[in-house]
From TrEMBL:
SUPFAM superfamilies: Cadherin-like (SSF49313). This is Cadherin domain-containing protein. It is a single-pass type I membrane protein. The lineage of its organism: Eukaryota, Metazoa, Chordata, Craniata, Vertebrata. It comes from Zosterops borbonicus. Keywords: Calcium, Cell adhesion, Cell membrane, Cleavage on pair of basic residues, Glycoprotein, Membrane, Metal-binding, Repeat, Signal, Transmembrane, Transmembrane helix.
Length: 779
């Protein structure tokens, strides 16, 4: 075995050192100590396990062990080198003899061992004489850490009245010291506060009940637990933790009534469901353990019942039936309170219930009248004469005063004309005959009012059934359409009929069908009663001719089985059709319609053709008008006529300025290139000229002025290319008043007098007022 293998074995031994039981620590230490004294003869390392105690404080390095090669001749030729964890910072080596020292304080809780490597080299050649070897320095623990309760403070809950030894909770403390070396981390628990109600197991920290406790006496306890290391030996560190222990409730207390007798009262007017009063039983428990139900015992009258208010745990006595002061003035009931949830463990303490007595007095009140029945059902035959008695309603005053009662009907407009009531005795009579077929039941309300106190009113419902009498004869259920072919043979069925009756028969209706004796057409048709409320219509001969008779009217007699029986005559119309065996209903209806109008088929076709021609002509006119509306007017001149809008901002020079506006801007290029003489403009202007002579002043000067303007317009090539109306304002000459214009005047308004305007007459009155001498007019 070489030195490197031996070194590995020693390292493994050091690493496995904590695994040895504590009771064998001393023997193991002796074995290691004896082992470290062994020296190898062969070439290799000579070393021993290294241990250092934490928290060692010394002003000088502390020796912890030595590394030595068997090649070391102690001549100083070998040099020892130390590398690895903590080398140079915590550990140093004497390079001449291989001794290792610790130079700083170590903390096992931070690092429990260090792995280092040693090497021996020749100082002369600087070559290793031994291969590099790895070893471990283990830090031995000392008791330098206090226990700690990391989860405190603690809160626990345990049911009250739990037996002794019941586990409440467990507290656990931790110690950072080495649990595998010595007793530094071995903890011992003890109880500082909480006796004699609780105890704690020294090694586990489990808190247990030491006696039975009642939550109603005290519901919370504060317990203090201490944990010591070193198994509680002197000089050990300790820590404490508080444990708050709450006692949860159990149902160990029965309910108790604080009153053994309750007094209540209720008015005889109180409706069903009225609260009469409340009772209350106390329970020292809480929550569901205090929940209770109230029951009523020994109440044979069954007038009251009780419910439980789950929020307040009160018992509410309610009225189950109406009470009557005149019948019974007081009641006595027994109420029981029972716990809803019972814990069988505590049944030995007695029943979890309690009882009390409730006395209830009935108070007298002025009550409304009381009907003998709440609902009256009456019958009357239909058709009974007005004034017929239908029935009687009866009500009385239940009070001792026994006040008289007045009756009335709560009428609608419909019932007011059918029924009336005697206000003194309650007799109901009809005011007119009733018809069952219109209404078979009539419902209304009757009121009874005390005459001495009209506010006391009661009501009752009256239901009147109208009984049926046989007053309606049977009849056809619908209008039958019956057709027969001209080629029909004798005995052929052409129709099946039935009947209906509005009356309500006590038995099922049965109808009898027959043909009236006075029927003149009895030889043409027959009626066969099927004895099932239907009958068949059959032909009585072969062959019919429409030209001879188009319709046949058959009087059918229908009789019911009422008492007395009623009979009615119903007319069945039979139409003859142009067919062989099968009837074409549409064609027959069409023929009957034409026959009723008195028109032949050819005449009807002619009328329809005329109507069709008229519609075609009318539609053609509408189409032509729509096409004309779509074509725009003056379509041929749309391309020739164009309008140009020219916007300009040019201030003219007055009446004498004729060159300020160039009208050529209004002309299109086509018009500018080619001047088309106007054919109708001259005649139109001449016409306007003649009209102006008729309406204007008869003056040669004015006519001459118009003529000149007309010639200028005809000869002017720049006029618009369409007819236009030109308006000229010519003042003329020879006015007696002279010109009113200030143009060309060399005098100012201040030098002129306008008094002469007042002499011109009423037409110049306003102008004279504006320019009178007493006013100053500025230009």
């Amino acid at each position: 075995m070489n030195s490197s293998v031996l070194l590995r074995l020693m390292v493994m031994l050091v690493q496995l050192w904590p695994c040895f039981p504590s009771r064998q620590n001393s023997r193991a230490q002796d074995t290691v100590q004896s082992f470290t004294e062994v020296r190898r003869v062969k070439r290799g390392w000579l070393w021993e396990p290294f241990f250092v105690t934490e928290e060692q404080i010394s002003p000088h390095p502390v020796y912890i062990g030595q590394l030595k090669s068997d090649l070391d001749k102690q001549d100083g030729n070998l040099k020892y080198i130390l590398t690895g964890e903590g080398a140079g910072s915590f550990f140093v080596i004497d390079e001449y003899n291989g001794k290792i020292y610790v130079i700083q304080k170590l903390d096992r809780e931070k690092k429990s061992f260090y792995t280092l490597r040693a090497e021996a080299i020749n100082r002369s050649t600087q070559l290793p004489v031994e291969p590099e070897s790895e070893f471990i320095i283990k830090v031995r623990d000392v008791n330098d850490n206090e226990p700690q309760f990391l989860d405190g403070p603690y809160v626990a809950t345990v049911p009250e009245m739990s037996p002794e030894g019941t586990s409440v909770t467990q507290v656990t403390a931790t110690d950072a010291d080495d649990p595998s070396y010595g007793n530094s981390a071995r903890l011992l628990y003890s109880l500082i506060q909480g006796q004699p109600y609780f105890s704690v197991e020294p090694k586990t920290g489990v808190i247990r009940m030491a006696s039975e406790m009642d939550r109603e006496t005290k519901d919370q306890y504060l317990v203090i637990i201490q944990a010591k290391d070193m198994v509680g030996q002197p000089g050990a560190f300790s820590a404490t933790a508080t444990v708050t222990i709450n006692l949860s409730d159990v149902n160990d207390n029965p309910p108790k009534f604080q009153q053994r007798l309750y007094y209540m009262r209720v008015s005889e007017e109180a409706p069903v469901g009225t609260t009469v009063g409340k009772v209350f039983a106390e329970d020292s428990d809480i929550g569901d353990n205090a929940a209770m139900d109230y029951l009523i015992e020994e109440d044979s009258s069954d007038v009251f019942h009780i419910i439980t208010n789950n929020e307040t745990q009160e018992g509410i006595v309610l009225l189950k039936k109406r009470v009557d002061y005149e019948s019974r003035k007081r009641y006595s009931i027994q109420v029981k309170a029972v716990n809803r949830y019972i814990d069988e463990r505590f049944l030995k303490k007695g029943p979890f219930e309690d009882t009390t007595i409730v006395k209830i007095n009935v108070e007298d009140a002025d009550e409304p009248p009381v009907f003998t029945l709440e609902n009256y059902v009456m019958e009357i035959f239909e058709g009974a004469m007005g004034g017929t008695l239908v029935g009687v309603v009866t009500a009385r005053d239940p009070d001792d005063a026994d006040s008289p009662v007045r009756y009335s009907i709560v009428h609608s407009m419909h019932l007011k004309r059918l029924f009336s009531i005697n206000e003194h005795n309650g007799a109901i009579i009809t005011t007119e005959p009733l018809d069952r077929e219109i209404a078979s039941w009539h419902n209304f309300t009757v009121t009874a009012t005390e005459t001495r106190n009209p506010e006391k009113i009661s009501e009752a419902n009256v239901y009147v059934q109208v009984l049926d009498v046989n007053d309606n004869a049977p009849e056809f259920p619908k209008n039958y359409e019956t057709f027969v072919c001209e080629n029909a043979v004798s005995g052929q069925q052409i129709q099946n009929i039935s009947a209906v009756d509005q009356d309500d028969s006590a038995e099922s209706h049965h109808f009898y069908f027959s043909l009236a004796q006075e029927d003149t057409n009895s030889s043409h048709f027959t009626v066969k009663d099927n004895q099932d409320n239907t009958a068949g219509i059959f032909t009585g001969k072969s062959g019919f001719r429409r030209e001879e008779q188009f319709f046949f009217y058959l009087p059918i007699l229908i009789q019911d089985n009422g008492t007395p029986p009623l009979t009615s005559t119903n007319t069945l119309t039979v139409t003859v059709c142009d067919c062989d065996t099968e009837v074409n209903t549409f064609y027959c209806r069409y023929g009957a319609f034409m026959y009723s109008l008195g028109l032949s088929t050819e005449a009807l076709v002619a009328v329809l053709a005329c109507i069709l021609i008229f519609l075609v002509f009318f539609l053609a006119i509408i189409t032509i008008r729509q096409q004309r509306k779509k074509k725009p007017p003056f379509s041929e001149k749309m391309e020739e006529f164009r309008e140009n809008i020219v916007s300009y901002d040019d201030e003219g020079g007055g009446e004498q300025d004729t060159e300020a506006f160039d009208i050529s801007a209004l002309r299109t290029r086509a018009v500018m290139r080619t001047h088309r003489p106007r054919k109708k403009a001259v005649s139109e202007i001449q016409s306007l000229y003649r009209q102006s002579l008729q309406v204007g002043p008869d003056s040669a000067i004015f006519r001459q002025f118009i003529s000149e303007k007309l010639q200028e317009a005809n000869a002017d090539p720049t006029v618009p290319p369409y007819d236009s109306l030109q308006t000229y304002a010519y003042e003329g000459t020879g006015s007696l008043a002279g010109s009113l214009s200030s143009l060309g005047s060399n005098t100012s308004d201040m030098d002129q007098s306008y008094d002469y305007l007042a002499d011109w007459g009423p037409h110049f009155k306003q102008l004279a007022g504006m320019y009178s001498s007493h006013r100053t007019v500025g230009d």
